[in-house]
Structures
1.
Amino acid sequence: MKPEAIKVACSNCNLRELCMPLGLSTEELNRIDDVVATRRKVKRGTPLFRNGEKFTSLYAIRTGFFKTCIATEDGRDQVTGFQMAGEIIGLDGIVNDQHTCDAVALEDAEVCVMPFDRIEELSREVNALQHHVHKIMSREIVREHGVMLLLGSMRAEERLAAFLLNLVQRLHARGFSQSELVLRMTREEIGSYLGLKLETVSRTFSKFVEDGIVEVRQRHVRILDTDALKRIVNAQSCH
Amino acid sequence: MKPEAIKVACSNCNLRELCMPLGLSTEELNRIDDVVATRRKVKRGTPLFRNGEKFTSLYAIRTGFFKTCIATEDGRDQVTGFQMAGEIIGLDGIVNDQHTCDAVALEDAEVCVMPFDRIEELSREVNALQHHVHKIMSREIVREHGVMLLLGSMRAEERLAAFLLNLVQRLHARGFSQSELVLRMTREEIGSYLGLKLETVSRTFSKFVEDGIVEVRQRHVRILDTDALKRIVNAQSCH
DNA sequence: CGGAAGTTTGATACCGATCAACCGATGTGG
DNA sequence: CCACATCGGTTGATCGGTATCAAACTTCCG
């Protein structure tokens, strides 16, 4: 949990095109190196931050896989997202200067710590960075609109199909297979994200296997028929 | 629909403390007047912007009431939020330079048009404005987390109770009653937002009336027992 | 190796969707 | 101003999808 004082540079990071704006001048690139203060390793099962903690920084995921979730006093729990390399977490903390959700590593992970006051400072001077920050926040808002659509109007099969397609698409953008993936989260966590119980998630996986749409061996999933998944997502509740 | 060339000033707007940062110097206040280019009237039932339209501006609601919703090709439709005076809409458009949802006036409305490039320009110079923009976006993200919790884990009564409490709370912050409100949206729109069918919304209202928690006359709602509503929201799915 | 955690599958219950009928409010044109 | 059409809302009956409860199995990990 101890912050590690490794000095790092975005300018030669292979995730740069995911985290950072494109088309920067060399001078701007060098300045942007300053937004990352340190890196921090987070062990599997361990929180990067927790609900109620003071907000200081955004985090760019270098390696590993996170979930963010909110818990209420009465024991309810909702996974609000799964995040992978190149994605930014911590945006929830800006509004009240404290985090309103937990971010937990689902596998050993490493993040770049980006103090938010430094981001604000630098984005006053580098227009591309300013706009980039705005885009990242807007993207998160739009993503959540999609989740609301899913939770508000889709049935179990549609939700799981949409979930799988979204995951492979993001993994593919990072150079992984379009058809094979390893789930880093449990059935229960998938269920929490999708508004389903873990048994329903399990049953729906089984149904997809029966229908020859996917192969599932524990957390290893191979998608055999992407189009079938797309058809499931787009099929309106027929009648 | 024609933009009207009324020159307006945030500095003497009675909604300023809702839209704009607090604690500005007189000089900063005067500069901020420049973010509002024009005002625009929107008739009831008419869109302020639509999915796919080019994004140019954020809008601050001066009067009236809006819904934002996304529609899919296959006929699904999801209300993603209801917005009232002092709230900002259009944030979804930043990421891809085009809007990804429709914003429709539920009653005759007027908005302040704030060209986004001007916002970015000015927030490079006025730190308080910069941070304010970040807070507005973060607040929207946190709000959507709450909706995800609602859609993912609450039952019909809990959803409607949470919805009513949220509405009166926001209305109260604008000087309206804590216990009386007029719904500007139909049962169907409430249902879409809450992930329920209109019949279920209607039945749940009826149940609340039976239990003496609210009085309902069409769209006029009087809350008789706020604590009961709060208890309903916080009651975990018991077993 | 043993226990805990995670997953699958079955049986049953229940909440909300669906289908349908009716009612009331609103608004429009003759 | 009234007749009538339309839209929104309520209520009832029934159906279906997902939750719940339960048991067995597998995998993981100390």
2.
Amino acid sequence: MRLTTKGRYAVTAMLDLALQEGKRPVTLQDIAMNQEISLSYLEQLFAKLRAAGLVKGMRGPGGGYRLAQKMGDISIASVIAAVDEKADMTRCGGEANCLDGEKCLTHELWMELSDKIYEFLNGITLGELVRRPEVIEVAERQEAVRQGLRSGRLKTVIVEADSLIGGAK
Amino acid sequence: MRLTTKGRYAVTAMLDLALQEGKRPVTLQDIAMNQEISLSYLEQLFAKLRAAGLVKGMRGPGGGYRLAQKMGDISIASVIAAVDEKADMTRCGGEANCLDGEKCLTHELWMELSDKIYEFLNGITLGELVRRPEVIEVAERQEAVRQGLRSGRLKTVIVEADSLIGGAK
DNA sequence: TGAAAACCAAGTAAAGAAGTTGGAAATTAT
DNA sequence: ATAATTTCCAACTTCTTTACTTGGTTTTCA
């Protein structure tokens, strides 16, 4: 289980998806604005999430993404594994050939740590996360911003601010 | 607590040092050969380990490095922290300003995971590792190679093999 | 005095992360 | 039908970090 910002982006986006479950599909555009991740980077991540069978995309206006499984069945570990294919924490990637075909001195230590991390992340699902108070709190704040954007008022402010500063990213 | 190959190199080298404790100082040349890490990369890592007060260097012939503290007092976490200064697992590095000065959706999750990893690595010391059977086993195999190199026989073989293949790295 | 080592600084190469660009295909709303 | 909206796709760029390289200098021992 390798841990990078890439995996974090994926988990955050998936959690956003889980929070909107039941409403209409969520567009990447929407996630990009809320979580401040670039749209095309999200596209790349979602291509992998889709390949892993974690989400399904729907094209056209009103389209977007939905979870492909029940949120209680999607573990954080599976999300991270989906986007960052090479999950080798050790020099050898699990095989014990780190050093001249033999185990290196610290092989067991990293294996043990990998197991611990996997155990932790595999034990938590999106379903569990959406029920956490602190997640709900942040989600509500973000929902308010989303409403503002949709109504057009905040969007105008942002566009104006961007043109003053020198363009959005 | 960020986890990279850099930290792993440092821990492996430190463990090598711990295993030789009591004998004469260990040269980086020696570690480089045994653990297959480039000498100058090791120099850079040891500059940081020295700055962190984990090792002390002795110059001149017969010199090398020794642990600066009792091996039972050196945790794996402290070794990793020494070489990989920016220990930010989260987008915000512990501060809760990951998103527009506010906590992002998954802030608590990563903090929790960071704590777990730190707890694990902080609970293990070099002193503990050198007593583990699998470490002792690997160390003994490496010691045999070291003896062979010192006696000159294996070294000759390696040099010959290298010139056949096209040079060492 | 010479060799062996730590020490130091600057650079390079390769990889991966993150983002960019410019589309094509599907689907819905007008 | 057509236009807008969205996923889907591929290639490329930029930035950062890792890992390694080069070419020294100082210290210390034999």
